[in-house]
Design a protein that fits this description.
- This protein starts with 18 loop residues before the first helix and ends in a 20-residue tail after the last strand.
- Helix 7 crosses helix 8.
- The protein folds into two domains: about 180 residues, Creatinase/prolidase N-terminal domain (Creatine Amidinohydrolase, Chain A, domain 1); about 240 residues, Creatine Amidinohydrolase (Alpha-Beta Complex), CATH 3.90.230.10.
- By secondary structure, it is α+β, with helices and mostly antiparallel strands.
- It has a six-stranded mixed β-sheet with strand order 6-3-2-1-7-8. Strands 9, 10, 11, 12 and 18 form a five-stranded mixed β-sheet that branches.
- The protein is elongated.
- It is about 30% helix and about 20% strand.
- The protein contains ten helices and 20 strands.
């Protein structure tokens, strides 16, 4: 049965996304991974990890600032130290943060399996990091963060246990270590927990893709010679926000000769007749991201462009056919071309052109698919994983390229594609052109003299 795509609102007459279950299941997965690790606690500064752990969010403006932090221990529920009045807001509207924790009766240096007793204390607290160094180093902000974390570790008898941290600023790391806390990499615990999506997460990811489906419909109607790349970015962003997107992370709009090599950034270039144009739409719906490429030809497509698209599509279809539980990332990348086959000296230079990555609360999660790492370090595909597969092929004329991306859910029997905008063959957008004999063919060279008998070498 296909994954359901519900409306984005909550209603009384249909069970849709169960937000309480989403929160409970994510926290349960994180707890399970923490228990499987040798860590006593996890400290998060990464906004995606904070949201996964605590179901709190203060807006996308703060994503790059590392100002908030959140802690979970083997004996306690999540604690979020938050930016200014956000902590008060969470205390009022996030009741799941006000839960019973367990304070250790044991010696502070005892193992984390010591006896515990219940204690009720709010998990929504005021606290702030160093503003990426903007605070005066002598203000003691980093030391204050370390003191807050140390208090909780001592309270729950975990000071002797390693603290897993995802990302951290140097002053915070130094302050934690000076406080006697053993800091280790905790990102792997977070990403392993997040690699298998709950049903609610899959529902939100599917809804996010449905919004991009609609954006591509508008984009296909809008594309024509004379349109600028940055205009398409505005059009797509407007559509997504109208549909309820939380955050348009980026729209990669690439056209004409800019397609090869792929620059990974849009410009103000004017699209011309016969241009290839590909787009990557990245946005967030209730935190859940998309990474969703499509390629078009504008007005018409050259044979070289059409051939490039077919090649990229073939690599995509081969990869999707192999997706099933028990397969590995190595199985997938083996059917993709080596870097040298499409003009690059090695896999590092061609990284992310033939590529795959988990999609969730951020766009690059586990598992990763790349010849750079997957052949030597394969990862097993498991039911409930959601990831994007991306293929690329430059056209033989040296001008264009094709880029395709599909997001798939690993099911018990294989893969379900949740990116629905047509991509089986190269779509031609824009005005149809007519000559005396009727419409011009959609496959034609952009230079008109090549369409004469002499240009084709027939005379």
């Amino acid at each position: 049965m296909p994954i359901a795509t519900y409306g984005t609102n909550s209603v009384d007459w249909e069970m849709r996304i169960d937000q309480d279950k989403l929160r409970r299941d994510r926290l349960a997965r994180l707890r399970a991974e923490l228990e499987r690790s040798d860590l006593g606690a996890l400290l998060a500064f990464d906004f995606a990890n904070i949201r996964y752990m605590s179901a709190t969010h203060i807006g996308t403006w703060a994503i790059d600032k590392a100002i908030r932090f959140s802690l979970i221990t083997r004996h306690s529920d999540p604690i979020v130290w938050d930016f200014g009045s956000a902590a008060r807001h969470h205390a009022l509207y996030n009741p799941w943060l006000d839960q019973t924790t367990a304070e250790s009766d044991a010696d502070p240096h005892a193992p984390h399996h010591g006896a515990v007793k219940p204690r009720l204390e709010s998990g929504a607290r005021a606290g702030i990091s160093t503003l990426r160094g903007a605070f005066n180093p002598d203000a003691g902000i980093a030391e204050g963060v370390a003191a807050k974390v140390k208090r909780e570790l001592e309270k729950f008898g975990l000071m002797g246990e390693p603290l897993g941290v995802d990302i951290v600023e140097m002053p915070i790391l130094i302050a934690l270590q000076k406080a006697g806390i053993s800091v280790v990499d905790g990102q792997q615990v977070f990403l392993t927990a997040r690699s298998i999506k709950t049903p609610e997460e899959i529902g939100l990811l599917t809804q996010a893709c449905s919004m991009v489906d609609a954006a591509y419909e508008d984009l296909y109607e809008f594309l024509k010679p004379g349109v600028k790349e940055n205009e398409t970015v505005g059009l797509v962003s407007k559509k997504l926000y109208e549909l309820g997107s939380e955050y348009v992370e980026g729209v990669n709009a690439i056209s004409g000769e800019r397609c090869s090599p792929h620059p990974h950034v849009f410009s103000d270039r004017v699209i011309r007749p016969g241009d290839p144009a590909f787009f990557d739409i990245l946005h967030s719906h209730q935190g859940y991201r998309t990474c969703y490429y499509r390629t078009f030809a504008v007005g018409s497509a050259s044979r070289a462009q059409h051939d490039a698209y077919r090649r990229a599509r073939e690599y995509m279809d081969r990869a999707i056919a192999l997706v099933k539980p028990g397969a590995t990332t190595a199985d997938i990348v083996k059917v993709w071309p080596k870097a040298e086959e499409f003009g690059f000296p090695d896999e590092e230079a061609a990284f992310a052109l033939q590529y795959g990555h988990g999609v969730g609360l951020s766009i690059w999660e586990k598992p990763i698919f790349s010849r750079l790492v997957s052949l030597d370090h394969p990862e097993e595909l498991k039911e409930g994983m959601v990831f994007a597969l991306e293929t690329y092929w430059p056209s033989s004329d040296g001008i264009g390229a094709a880029r395709i991306e599909e997001e798939v859910v690993v099911t018990a029997t294989g893969a379900e594609v949740i990116t629905k905008f047509p991509a089986e063959d190269l779509l031609v957008a824009g005005q149809r052109y007519y000559a005396i004999g009727g419409p011009l063919p959609l496959e034609r060279e952009s230079q008109s003299h090549l369409n004469t008998a002499a240009g084709r070498g027939e005379e």
